Amino acid sequence: MATAAVQIQRFHRDRSAMFDPRLTGELHALFDQPREARDSTWLDLFYDIAWFAALAAAGVQEGPDGLPYLRLNLPNPGDRFEPHCLANRAGDCLAAGYGAALFGSAEDPPEAAQFVFPFGVLDSMIRYDSPDGDPIDIIESALPPEPPATKRGWFGLGGPRPAPHQVLLATPSDQFLPPYTAKALHAYLTRSWGMQNPRVQLLTDVSMRPYRHLVIGKALSDFPDEQSAHQAMQYVLWHLPPMRSVVLLPDGWRLQEMTPLRDLFAGAPGL
User: Fold this and answer.
1) Does residue 258 sit within a domain?
2) pLDDT at 147 over 90
3) 104-110 contacts: CB < 8 A, separation 24 or more?
4) How far does the chain reach from its first CA to its final CA, in angstroms?
5) For the ranges 79-83, 113-117, 128-132, 211-215, which has the lowest average pLDDT?
6) With 50 as the cut, is the pLDDT of residue 150 above it?
7) Listed residues 53, 87, 117: the one ending a domain
8) How high is the pLDDT of residue 116?
9) Proportion of the chain above pLDDT 90, given as a percent
């Protein structure tokens, strides 16, 4: 009789596996390796060890990029500390709008983080059991590209798009943009972009890779130049799982027809 395969969750939050001091020692060994030698094998091992290793929490700090991170320090052998770990604090980070940064010691300055987890990567690890993003986006991004086009892209930043064709517009679902992500993104856009009532829309365009794109209700012309717009969009992407796509307000769109970002998290329960 055939038996069904049991899928084991990689980044689970079972407390019996958390705060492991043995993994803390293994994390010391990983951080001792030169940064230039940290390849994909190192990275895969790191994710599994760092998720459950016992670490010391040191509050929330602003990173060199200006975004908030929960600081987790690697304790020295023999140190007494209250143990924390990513597995038990990642949900707190998402609820509060933080990323997480791991440091080799409590004395290291903010720019010396050994590893940084953007908000969107933490979200990906919890929701998709992977730091690599939504499997749907990954599959779509790997599809062959459409034939070359001649018109400017949805970003308005020079990328190609096909000639006029049909696209689908909708309000982002809570699977695509969970309430805690909508809340964190709202805080960023009001604080850093000066938007009083940020609006978003979900654009699905099968000619692009991936198909789904989060549209932010601000046009390229509202930025000083294309470089400033591109940099600002990278900070938006910090809030989203890897492989997500974000575009600026296309020409001719009516801002009033987009969904207020606040509507996607108002009244939603916490994690």
Assistant:
1) yes
2) no
3) 104/31, 104/73, 104/74, 105/73, 105/74, 105/76, 106/56, 106/58, 106/73, 108/73, 110/61, 110/62, 110/63, 110/64
4) 41
5) 79-83
6) no
7) 117
8) 98
9) 82
Is residue 239 included in any domain, yes or no?
yes
Residue position matching structure tokens 């059991």: 129
Phi, psi of 34 (to 5 degrees): -55, 145
Q: What is the pLDDT of residues 18-67, one digit of tens each?
A: 999 999 999 999 999 999 999 999 999 999 999 999 999 999 999 999 99
Residue 130 covered by a domain = no
The first and second tokens of residue 245, run together, are 């796509």
Residue among 196, 192, 169, 206 nearest 238 (CA): 192
The answer to whether residues 147 and 248 belong to one domain is yes
Count of domains observed in the chain: 2
Residue-range definition of the domain harbouring residue 76 = 18-117
Checking if the pLDDT of 97 tops 50, the result is yes
Same domain, yes or no: 96 and 145:
no
Examine the domain organization and report whether 51 and 165 are in the same domain: no
Mark whether 259 and 141 lie in a shared domain. yes
Question: Are 144 and 192 part of one and the same domain?
Answer: yes
CA proximity to 265, closest of 167, 154, 190, 169? 190
